[in-house]
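Need C-alpha cells for this chain, all 395 residues.
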Amino acid sequence: MQPLNRLSLQFIYFDAGGGHRSAAIALRQVIAQRYPSWQVDLVNLQELLRPVDPVFRVTKRRVSSEGVYNGMLKRGWTYGSLPLLRGLQAGIKLRSPQIEAVLEDHWHQTDPDLVVSLIPNFNGVLFRSLRNVRPDVPYVTVMTDIADRPPHFWQEEQDQFIICGSDRAVEQARMKLYRPDRILRVSGMVLKPDFYQGEIKDRRAERQKQGLNPDLPTALIMFGGNGSKIAIDIVEDLERLPFKMQSIVMCGNNQSLKQALAQRDLCLAVGFTDRVPDYMRLADFFIGKPGPGSISEALHIGLPVIVERNRRTMPQEQYNTEWITEKNVGLVVKDFRQITDAVIALFKNNGLEKFQKNASLLNNRALFEIPEILARLMSVRNETEYLLSSEPGCQ
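Here are the C-alpha cells for all 395 residues:
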C-alpha cells in the first residue's frame, strides 16, 4: 500500500453514451488540482473486453458492442430499449467466467490502490474479479444516473462503496442492504469544471455578439453529441407561438442538422463545441432528452427544463422525469409535438421564475465532493493497514 500522497487510482469507464467518460475526465481534472501527486488512470472497459466481445468477433474486429449502442442512440432507435438492456445483462451473466478471467489478468498486471467504476451493468464482474486478485483494494461505484434501474444495473448485492447523487439512489442502496457506511451521498451528478467557471457579466451584449436578439425569450435545444432532427420540428413549432421566441440549437457532430437550421430566423445553430456552458448561459430554458448529464448541466446554469417521456425514453432515464417533477424544476411532455403548450405554460403565472428559483436551490457540488470522499476512504484504509502492521508478530 502506497502513502496517501502517492495514491494510484483506476477509473473504469466506457464510451457508451459519452457521459461516463466525461465524468471520469472531469473528476481527474479536479483531482490533478487538489491531489497532484495522485496518479489517475482512465481504463476503457470496452478496450479490455474486446477479446470476449461477441459483436467485435462476429464483425471481424470492425464493430464493437459499444459502437452498436452509440449507433442506435445517434439514429434515435430507442424504442423497446428495456428488452435490449435485459439482453445485454443476460449476455454479461452468460459470459461472466470469460469476462472475469480477462479482468483478473488486468488486475494482475496493475497495482491500483483504489478502483472507481463510473459505469453500470458490469459492477458485479468488476467487483468479483478484483476481489479474486486484490481483495484489499476498495471498490467504489460513482452513479452517473440519478437513480438505479434494477436489477443489476448500477447496484449489486456486494460489499462495496457506492456514491449516490439523489435521495432515491440512496433509498435504493439501502433496500439492496448496502452497509450504511458504504452509501455515500453527494449533491448531484458530476459536471465538467467549465460549468463552475466563466459567468457572463453582460448577457444582452453576449447575445448580440452571437447574432441573437438581446431581449427575446431564448430556448436552448440539445439532444446529445449527435443532435437530432426532431430539433427542426421543435424550432418550427416555437415559431408558431403567440409571442416571439428565439432558439439556440446544439447540433453536435450533426452537420446536416446545422445546415438545415443555418438560415432560419431567430435560430442560432451551433456545431460541435466545448463551450456548451457559455451557450446555456445565454438561454432562459432547456429543451431536450431527460439524460442525467444534460438536465443536470442545464439546471446548474439555472435553466428550467422541458423533456419528453414516452416509449423512446431510455429505461435508466425514465426516473429523471419523475425527479424533475418532484423538484419542480421543469415540465414533462408525452411528445414534443406538445412543445408549444408546454412553453406557454412555462411562461404563464411567473412559472419560469419559479422553476429558476427551484433550480438555484439544487447547488450541485458533486465534482468537488467526490475527490474528498475518495481521499477519506484511502485515509481510513491507510490507518487500518498501519494498525494491522503494528500488531505483535506483523513484519
